[in-house]
Design brief:
The chain has helices at residues 3-14, 18-40, 43-60, 70-89, 117-129, 133-144, 149-156, 160-189. By secondary structure, the chain is an all-alpha fold.
Length: 190
């Protein structure tokens, strides 16, 4: 997305142009929905949350001071909204901290390379869904949306080093989930 085009539309939205806001929604709806889905895990909850995020963005866009990228500001609103939804529903338990501290040797099971793209996507989606919501968002922002550690820190409010630790632990957790699932599937075939 071109920065000048984005800046143009945001200025128009600030001036009250609702058509320009439609452009903003269309430009970011997939990314906001993905964050909401990763955090809330329910498609219905994610759709509702994404709509609420865009309402919040519209109401508070005058407060966007353009000191950071618009996408970072928007991600931050989506992230905080989902955290609020989660807090209202239940207390989240972070399973990643229960992993052993020893290093995972990823070369032991590298069966993902032999799977088709569709199967690989399905397994990776399953592994991401096994992560706690905030870790799933960090993984999504880093690998799928290709945000830097500093940009993710701006979205989540965590430090860059904390993001790095979460990514490391998330990869270990995902590896363990994939490894266990692939072993189980292999045993059922044999």
């Amino acid at each position: 997305m071109e920065v000048q085009e984005e800046t143009y539309h945001i200025k128009r939205v600030k001036q009250g142009d609702k058509e320009a806001y439609t452009w903003v929604v269309n430009a970011y709806k997939d990314m906001v929905y993905t964050i909401c889905l990763r955090m809330l895990t329910s498609e219905v909850d994610a759709e509702e949350a994404a709509q609420e995020v865009f309402v919040k963005v519209y109401r508070s866009i005058q407060g966007f001071q353009e000191k950071s990228k618009f996408s970072t500001w928007l991600y931050r609103i989506a992230y905080n909204h989902c955290i609020s939804v989660i807090r209202k529903k239940t207390k989240v338990i972070d399973l990643v901290d229960q992993l052993p501290d020893d290093e995972v040797n990823e070369s032991d099971v590298n069966g993902l390379d032999r799977l088709s793209g569709e199967e690989r996507s399905r397994y990776l989606q399953m592994a991401i869904e096994a992560l706690p919501e905030t870790d799933a968002v960090v993984v999504t922002l880093f690998y799928y949306d290709e945000l830097s550690l500093d940009e993710i820190a701006g979205v989540t409010g965590l430090t860059s080093s904390n993001i790095r630790i979460k990514l490391h632990r998330s990869r270990k957790k995902m590896y363990n989930v994939l490894s266990q699932h692939l072993k189980t599937e292999l045993n059922s075939i044999m």
